[in-house]
Amino acid sequence: xxxxxxxxxxxxxxxxxxxxxxxxxxxxxxxxxxxxxxxxxxxxxxxxxxxxxxxxxxxxxxxxxxxxxxxxxxxxxxxxxxxxxxxxxxxxxxxxxxxxxxxxxxxxxxxxxxxxxxxxxxxxxxxxxxxxxxxxxxxxxxxxxxxxxxxxxxxxxxx
Length: 159
Prior knowledge:
Elements: H1 5-16, E1 21-28, E2 31-36, H2 41-52, E3 56-64, E4 68-76, E5 83-91, E6 96-98, H3 108-118, E7 121-123
Parallel strand pairs: 2-5, 6-7
Antiparallel strand pairs: 1-2, 3-4, 4-5
Domain NADH:ubiquinone oxidoreductase 30kDa subunit: 34-151
Protein name: NADH:ubiquinone oxidoreductase 30kDa subunit domain-containing protein
InterPro entries: NADH_quin_OxRdtase_su_C/D-like, NADH_UbQ_OxRdtase_30kDa_su
């Protein structure tokens, strides 16, 4: 029996990156989730681009989990017939991860958005002051973090 493209990809990822993958599964038709260890995302995304021609990044989702921030890289082939989610975590007290804009240039705005709203630093990505937030937004204030509280004088707190 011939494997589907998604099943073949999951098998390849488990085989080539066994030491970097926490979990890889087909969650339903045309949807693959892969959880990877910290720092493994670049090698895996590069592999997927080269082997499976995945060149489209839909977005990057950032989620405050309390002690960690989870990053979900939503990827799709150009025909967008299925979706692949690469999940990884960074510690909230040191939220740094390597950029992927040299692999998938379309990630440039998504990395800037996650930086603005959650404070994740994408190493190798030189970012201007703000992307989503106003220019006068205070340093170190990240409005999508669960522990963030609006303060007097913070631009959005005036609304």
